[in-house]
């Protein structure tokens, strides 16, 4: 598990350097849950999101409550197509650790990693991504800035390609 945490921390540092600043992206930034003006529940299924698309307003702070109803680990990641493509490469490099964490998580019977900054990994804990183990819940709160073509997606290897992605429209 410590190798997973270390790898996650290195990946986050690389991602943040590419983003330009620690937690601010062109389309917004993480926010504390108490700043949310709206709560949106998103169900993560094996291989789909419900709802399939989301709409927010520029300037709005949204608290996403994420519920993994599937049998597989899933993530909720906010980003543009290029960010998702880069994140997918990082996830492939760490898929063994992800599987080991998922197996250990199920054996423990609780969500020790769900919604946690488990080393900040590959965006997890960096604000725009949260990993949710099967049967667990997590939250992500985000303040949306200007309109930008972004998506919410699961970048666990193969999930994006199988259609676990949806448009997020910022009005």
UniProtKB/TrEMBL annotation:
<dbReference type="GO" id="GO:0009055">
    <property type="term" value="F:electron transfer activity"/>
</dbReference>
<dbReference type="InterPro" id="IPR050845">
    <property type="entry name" value="Cu-binding_ET"/>
</dbReference>
<dbReference type="Pfam" id="PF00127">
    <property type="entry name" value="Copper-bind"/>
</dbReference>
<feature type="domain" description="Blue (type 1) copper">
    <location>
        <begin position="40"/>
        <end position="170"/>
    </location>
</feature>
<dbReference type="InterPro" id="IPR000923">
    <property type="entry name" value="BlueCu_1"/>
</dbReference>
<dbReference type="InterPro" id="IPR008972">
    <property type="entry name" value="Cupredoxin"/>
</dbReference>
<dbReference type="GO" id="GO:0005507">
    <property type="term" value="F:copper ion binding"/>
</dbReference>
<feature type="signal peptide">
    <location>
        <begin position="1"/>
        <end position="19"/>
    </location>
</feature>
<keyword id="KW-0732">Signal</keyword>
<protein>
    <submittedName>
        <fullName>Copper-binding protein</fullName>
    </submittedName>
</protein>
<keyword id="KW-0186">Copper</keyword>
<keyword id="KW-0479">Metal-binding</keyword>
């Amino acid at each position: 598990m410590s190798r997973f945490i270390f790898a996650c921390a290195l990946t986050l540092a690389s991602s943040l350097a590419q983003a330009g600043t620690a937690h601010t992206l062109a389309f917004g930034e993480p926010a504390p849950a108490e700043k949310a003006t709206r709560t949106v529940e998103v169900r993560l299924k094996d291989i789909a999101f419900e709802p399939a698309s989301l709409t927010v307003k520029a300037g709005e702070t949204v608290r996403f409550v994420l519920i993994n109803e599937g049998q597989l680990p899933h993530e909720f990641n906010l980003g543009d197509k290029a960010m998702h493509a880069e994140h997918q490469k990082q996830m492939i490099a760490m898929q063994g650790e992800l599987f080991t964490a998922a197996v250990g998580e199920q054996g423990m019977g609780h969500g020790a990693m769900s919604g946690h900054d488990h080393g900040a990994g590959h965006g997890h804990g960096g604000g725009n991504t949260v990993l949710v183990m099967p049967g667990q819940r997590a939250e992500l709160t985000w303040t949306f800035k200007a309109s930008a073509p972004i998506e919410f997606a699961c970048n666990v290897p193969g999930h994006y390609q199988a259609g676990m992605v949806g448009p997020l429209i910022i009005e």
